[in-house]
């Protein structure tokens, strides 16, 4: 397939997990890709795996200047940014009830998961509005729809991201730019692997398919949302939960 031929994507969090998988998939389908990650080495590894269609850029979504620089580098390399996929996110401290949560930890999760998502959207929109075309996709979570106990910061910030996407979808609905989200259940990534076993079991037990999703499944869904074919859906959060959430 070459349905992304002539398009350029900025993938935030391309160094590992879902971000790496979707960066590779988009490139296989014809896109040029700016592989963006806090870890320059992992971004470089993904870019090297892709080959000449890719560049590696170091950026942290909690630092708006570095995000702006990443988009500028992508535009300089490829001429136009058509797609922005934001896979950045942290879980914060888990296994604590709300009255036990440390506010500094909560604030850290907000800065990356929610404020960082706004920074990515703002930066992408400023570039895309010049061309009246774009696809912005944020990776949210089923935790943002239903709430995961003992993951208050993660659940709250992913819910905030979903609300942000709803608002932005309406704001830019007439511009040729869509803003959507993907809400996975448990996907076998490094982030999930770092969680306590009891937390993963708690989440997986709620999935009717009784398994975790794969990064390849997430990448395929993200690629559709970022495609020209997904042209009449905006402000929406797509389900990727093995039947857990059907709304």
Write a concise keyword list for the protein shown above.
247 residues, alpha/beta, 7-stranded parallel beta sheet, 15% strand
Q: Mean pLDDT across all residues, rounded? A: 95
Could you say which structural class the secondary elements and strand pairing correspond to? alpha/beta
Number of helices: 9
The H-and-E topology, N to C, reads as EHEHEHEHEHHEHHHE
Give a short account of the largest sheet. Answer: 7 strands, parallel
The best one-word shape is globular
**Count of DSSP E strands?**
7
Stretches where pLDDT is under 50 for at least 5 consecutive residues are none
Distance between the ends: 30 Å
How much helical structure, as a percent, in the residues? 40-55%
Percent strand: 15-25%
Short characterization:
With 247 residues, the chain is an alpha/beta fold.
């Amino acid at each position: 397939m070459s349905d992304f031929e002539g398009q350029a994507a900025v993938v935030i969090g391309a160094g590992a997990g879902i971000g790496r998988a979707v960066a590779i998939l988009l490139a296989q389908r014809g896109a040029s890709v700016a592989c963006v990650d806090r870890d320059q080495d992992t971004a470089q590894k993904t870019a090297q795996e892709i080959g000449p269609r890719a560049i590696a850029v170091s950026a942290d979504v909690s630092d708006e200047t570095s995000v702006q620089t990443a988009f500028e580098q992508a535009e300089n390399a490829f001429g136009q940014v058509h797609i922005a996929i934001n896979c950045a996110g942290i879980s914060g401290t888990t296994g604590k009830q709300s009255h036990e949560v440390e506010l500094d930890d909560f604030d850290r999760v907000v800065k990356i998961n929610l404020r960082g998502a706004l920074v990515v959207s703002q930066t992408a929109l400023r570039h895309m509005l010049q061309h009246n075309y774009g696809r912005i996709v944020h990776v949210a979570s089923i935790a943002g729809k239903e709430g995961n106990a003992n993951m208050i910061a993660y659940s709250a910030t992913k819910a905030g991201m979903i609300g942000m996407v709803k608002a932005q979808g309406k704001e830019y609905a007439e511009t040729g730019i869509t803003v959507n989200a993907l809400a996975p259940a448990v996907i076998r990534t490094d982030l999930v692997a770092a969680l306590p076993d009891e937390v993963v079991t708690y989440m997986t037990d709620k999935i009717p398919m009784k398994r975790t999703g794969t990064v390849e499944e997430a990448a395929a869904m993200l690629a559709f949302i970022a495609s020209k074919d997904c042209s009449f859906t905006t402000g929406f959060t797509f389900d990727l939960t093995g039947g857990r959430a059907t709304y």
